[in-house]
Amino acid sequence: MTQVTIPGERTTEDDVLPTSAHMPTEVELLRRAGVVVAETIFPDAERVDREGTFPWAGLRALADAGLGGLPLPRELGGQATRTRIYAETVAAVAAACGSTSTVFMTQLHCAHPIHVAGTPTQQERWIPALCAAEAVGAIALTEPDAGSDVASMRTTAKRDGDAWVINGSKIFISNGDVADVVVLFASADLARGKDGITAFLVPTSEVDGFEAGRPMKKLGQKGASTVALSFEDCRLPADALLGEVGQGYRLLLESVKTSRISAAAQGVGMAEGALTDTTSYCADRGLLSARNRGAQDLQFALARLRAEVQAGRALLTSACDLVDADAAEAAAAVSMAKLHCTSLGVRVADECLELLGPDADRADLGVERRLRDAKLTEIYDGTNQVQSMLIARDMRLALER
Questions:
Q1: What is the pTM of this model?
Q2: Which residues pair with 140 in a beta bridge?
Q3: Are 317 and 84 a contacting pair, CB within 8 Å?
Q4: pLDDT tens across 213-244, in order?
Q5: Which range of residues forms the domain containing residue 61?
């Protein structure tokens, strides 16, 4: 019904890094993303949401197109792209299907800390498999009583001979019930607070004492399974340690840059998807014609929303470039992108619903789904209230310097 808009198609050849002849350019990768979205993800999005079905077809199609782990090194199965290309791809997927975008980005969220802190053996075992969707990954941080305040986590890791024994629970874990590997954050010493946080790799089919709960019923992104995880005397081998003991908090801070970029990209994509579907709906009814002066207010509203989406994309791109440059202001820029772009997704979808009038709640139009999906992006990867706190803290520190 609606032609899918692919944000990445706006990238020009002049804006793309050179690559060798046998490797795809960034423009080619974005073109592939557009094909997968149009042919596989978009046609299945309404069913995935309605049935709450895990989007296996979309995940595998993205991997088959070489889009898994885009910013990761080629020798590990990635494409060594800039972060902005990854963000454009997430936005393109999110414009069509929020569930698929969350499953897709969670693969990188799992692979990224393994790339940063893993041993060569850990990297070679898991990262290529995650990029190829031969393995599904998850990252386990949030607990029932420890969300944004990670220093309050109570999942423990105790050394016992040549093993680590894990006890505790995690909640709101994307992909947790289908994951082959989980990047787990636990405390090796509760008395040390955040300095006791340590990361581990949990190969789910190889350990006892690990259990994933049933997928939760959610407002949106219903095809992206979200579950609780429980660990009861779960024994992990010594080589399951990811990085060093007590270095998990530092790894976590590095990891959230990627996850918050992902959420910001989803916000831009969901706003784009809602706007595209609403514009198509209006065009089909002659409401965009210059001769239809009675529809000028609607036309002006759509024009303003289009400008807002473009501004959000520019903010997202700027944050991506600062991350790649390892700039000092990258953390604050990422928080601003997450705050602004996820709120943008909710606001644009909400306004589009109002413009649709009596047809606003029609599931076949897809706009109400974008609103439900977008709302979740304001909550995970650090709530937008937390992002506001981080931005305010950066402002205060800047004045003190």
A1: 0.94
A2: 184
A3: yes
A4: 999 999 999 999 999 999 999 999 999 999 99
A5: 7-136
